[in-house]
Write a structure and sequence with these properties.
The complex is a heterodimer of chains A (322) and B (293). Chain A is mainly α and 322 residues long. Helices cover 67% and strands 0% of the residues of chain A. Chain A has helices spanning 32-51, 56-81, 87-120, 124-129, 134-162, 175-202, 210-221, 233-240, 243-255, 269-274, 281-313. Chain A starts with 31 loop residues before the first helix and ends in a 9-residue tail after the last helix. In chain B, helix 4 runs antiparallel to helix 12. The two termini of chain B are 40 Å apart. Classes of the chains: A mainly alpha (322), B mainly alpha (293). The A-B interface holds A 53-54, 58, 61-62, 65-67, 69-70, 72-74, 76-81, 83, 89, 93, 205-206, 209, 212-213, 216-217, 219-220, 224-227, 230-231 and B 46, 48-49, 52, 55-56, 59-60, 62-64, 66-73, 77, 190-191, 194-195, 197-198, 200-202, 204-205, 208-212, 215-216, 247.
Chain lengths: 322, 293
């Protein structure tokens, strides 16, 4: 007797679990409560990492200095040229630069989570082998930076209204449009962030610059601080298929109905395609939904492919010294 | 090998450690060259660095060019933005590769080796500055040439010598400030990375990177007094667009060149003092090799 023969009758066949239970794959899949707990924990961790390096006052200054300075640069550019006399121009650049702070936080927050954990703290492989879904952890960690970006954006808007003379009338705000475009826009920003995080899983040194490079490129085509009609028609077309362009236009039109359009205008590609001077709220929502859905589906596909390849090639613990 | 380092029989270790002035000078010069070498040699070694270091300032510059185009601004304003965009390459180099460098070296475990080596740590800073200047110059030149051609900027220079003098003085003062910040960031530890982030957009704003600084009024005057980027950029704009209408309210380029000379001297002395003080404190508190804090 070799000692390996079965001592009793074998009831299970193939890879099915034995009668006594054995390994149950269902137990490795988290339930809704587990997912929520992972998300909450990673959100808290992300916030601690973002905020615990200094006292609250310095952290506040740090969080708002960048977006407020960006808005001030544009406001002074308007002043110098004489555009400051037109309050709608101020509203245009203040809203655009405030929203862009939010975009950059969302994009870079998710991508830098991968880089921080892999390159700096060297924890990525441990996070990966934990029972939590990595995508849930990634989103949780990104929430902290999105929150910081949102705070910066809100304060920039507040300073714009209170100090820089942006003509804001709360009674004229199109609240349904604002709520809808904010929800879809946030999802689109996260989708772009997840896509970049997936790309950073594959790349080596100097991936730290990727979010800024992508952000800088999108900044040019999204009409954040100037109407895209000043761009060549081909670049305008790129802007029209970017969800961020429609999100920024939607927020602008909801906060300042009838203000300057970043997508339309006389001679714009939008006008030549539709015959309208600027998009109507319904068109903005439909376009944002369509482009946002494409971006989200693409990001999920890219993330899953990147996830598989990273596991296959052993990239999760491959630090590059950057 | 230099004769300054030739074998010299000595009676005791103490006598061997008593270096001549020539040996000290040669060691410091070799330190400058040694620390500058990786930056100069590595300028194009990591291709993605070259791409991003040119692309990022270029994208930002382009965005502001389009803002002025949308406002139908006079053509010299496009030139102001392009010049400012080129100078951002130096500022980013100063804050990321000078100010943050010693903290980063500490995090990598190299800083204790620097302090243990028989050299003046100021030589390391000079080497970093020289290598960084060469490296950033290539990036700035690329941004300047591409943006000038693409956006049709025409410069009108009447005083080339003064323009070049102001340019080099601006860089000397900028890297002097970088040396001061390097010492301070060593003390601030983990806050250094965040403070580096903080020194980008706010400094761009108060330096008048995309608009004439005279429009900032008192704030602009303060910036001219303390920020090399502000005073250097203002002087270069006055000299590079000599025939264009330029908002009055700032000193002439000659005066601004003198301000830059004063800044260079003050920042270099301040860096020397700060480095000595912080080195002493760090040794006393045993923080030279403490990482991630």
């Amino acid at each position: 007797v070799s000692g390996f023969e079965a001592t009793g009758p074998i009831t299970a066949t193939g890879l099915a679990p034995p009668e006594w239970g054995g390994f149950d794959p269902a137990r490795t899949r988290g339930r809704a409560g587990d997912v929520l707990r992972s998300f909450r924990t990673s959100t808290r961790l992300g916030w601690q990492m973002e905020a615990n390096w200094t006292d609250p006052l310095l952290f506040f200054i740090y969080s708002v200095a960048k977006p407020v300075s960006s808005a001030l640069i544009l406001v002074f550019m308007l002043e110098v040229i004489g555009g400051g006399s037109k309050p709608e121009y101020r509203a245009f650049v203040v809203v655009g630069s405030a929203l862009w702070a939010f975009v950059l936080s969302g994009i870079s927050g998710l991508a830098w989570t991968v880089l921080d954990d892999r390159e700096r703290y060297r924890m990525l492989k441990y996070v990966y082998v934990s029972p939590s879904d990595f995508l849930v952890v990634l989103l949780g960690r990104g929430v902290a930076r999105i929150a910081v970006g949102a705070m910066g954006a809100l304060i920039t808007l507040g300073i714009g209204v209170a100090v820089l003379g942006v003509p804001f009338d709360i009674a004229r705000v199109d609240w349904p449009l604002l709520v809808i475009v904010m929800a879809i826009g946030l999802a689109s920003i996260i989708a772009i962030g997840v896509m970049l995080a997936a790309i950073c899983l594959q790349t080596r040194q100097e991936s730290w610059s990727y979010p800024e490079a992508v952000g800088g490129s999108l900044f040019l085509v999204s009409g954040a601080v100037f109407p895209i009609l000043v761009l060549p028609a081909l670049v305008q077309a790129v802007g029209l298929v970017t969800p961020l362009s429609w999100w920024i236009e939607g927020v602008r039109q909801s906060l300042f109905p009838g203000g300057i359009s970043s997508i339309g205008g006389t001679g714009s590609l939008f006008e030549s395609l539709t015959g309208q001077a600027s998009p109507a709220p319904g068109q903005i929502v439909v376009a944002l939904l369509a482009t946002g859905t494409v971006a989200t589906l693409a990001s999920i596909a890219v993330f899953r492919a990147s996830d598989r390849r990273a596991k296959d090639r052993g990239l999760l613990d491959q630090t590059t010294g950057s | 090998m230099s004769t300054a380092f030739a074998y010299r029989p000595t009676a005791s270790p103490q006598e061997a450690a008593a270096w001549t002035r020539r040996q000290v000078l040669m060691t410091d010069l070799r330190t400058v060259a040694g620390r500058a070498y990786p930056r100069v040699r590595g300028m194009a070694r990591e291709k993605s660095w070259v791409f991003f270091e040119v692309l990022l300032p270029f994208l930002a510059t382009s965005a502001f060019v389009f803002v002025y185009r949308a406002l139908q601004a006079p053509p010299q304003y496009i030139g102001f933005v392009v010049l400012g965009g080129a100078m951002t390459a130096f500022w980013l180099n100063v804050i990321w590769m000078m100010a943050q460098q010693l903290w980063w070296e500490k995090s990598q475990g190299n800083l204790e080796l620097y302090f243990a080596a028989p050299m003046n740590i100021m030589s390391v800073l000079f080497g970093m500055a020289f290598g960084g200047f060469i490296m950033a110059s290539t990036r700035a030149a690329a941004v300047l040439v591409v943006a000038t051609v693409l956006y049709g900027v025409s410069f009108e220079v009447n005083q080339w010598v003064l323009l070049l003098a102001v340019f080099f003085l601006t860089l000397a003062a900028l890297y002097g400030l970088g040396m001061v910040l390097a010492s301070l960031f060593l003390m601030w530890g983990r806050e250094a990375w965040h403070l580096t982030q903080l020194l980008v957009e706010p400094v761009y704003f108060v330096s008048g990177l995309n608009f004439p600084i005279a429009s900032l009024g008192l704030l602009g005057s303060v910036a001219i007094a303390i920020l090399p980027l502000a005073v250097g950029l203002d002087a270069m704009r006055q000299l590079a667009f000599a025939d264009s209408a330029y908002p009055a309210g700032t000193p002439g380029p000659g005066v601004e060149a003198l301000i830059l000379v004063a800044m260079t001297v003050v920042f270099t002395l301040l860096a020397r003092w700060a480095l000595k003080t912080l080195e002493r404190r760090a040794r006393q508190e045993g923080r030279l090799s403490v990482r991630w804090q």
